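hey so i finally got around to running the thing on that chain from the lab meeting. sorry it took forever, my laptop kept dying and i had to restart like 3 times. anyway pasting the input first so we r on the same page abt which one it is
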Amino acid sequence: MKIVELLSLLLSLLLLSILTPFLVFVEFYFLDTQMSELGFVEIVQELMVFVLVIKVMLEYKRKPKVLYLILALFFLVVLSRELDFLFNQVQHGSWIYPASIFSLIGFILIVKNRLTFLSQFALWKNTRGFAFFFLGCVVLFVFSRLFGTGRLWEVIMAEEYSRLIKTVVQEGLELFGYSIILYSIVVLSDKDDDPSLLLYSSSNSLSTLNC
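ok and heres what got predicted. didnt touch it at all, straight out
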């Protein structure tokens, strides 16, 4: 990796790390929406997912790949969950219906195009973009849930427990996860065809196996 690329990557990580606390600060200091469903941070999260959907669909239009369709459907499932407060106006928990439809379509596409999908995924998983995507998903779907669980903060804070603190931690981590995923798709996906972005090349893998 070139020095310029390394510095650019480190700067990007630094900015991503600053973004989350800055947006949380904006919500509480300027808006005082207290992390509600219509709060600033929640809206930013939803906009991020919407941008992700648009981005992968534009990528599909530029270069038709089953992988892009699957990613778009994945983000539509996530967006359905983020917009649960809208679906709750119709019926509580009804976000599960559009999410299930998108999931089913994605499953059918993978089954019908499994070899093509697997070959495209095999190439993508060796890129830095995928590494960041995977990291973002871990933060979003695993770490934020575990570290933001109410029971954990009840034990930590005891009688001083505040649900707001728990919400800030969880939503902040979710925002950080979305930021990493957005970076991986919007910034790094444009360079996925660049061999210099491969974490390891197929020739290196073969030479390692032959040793």
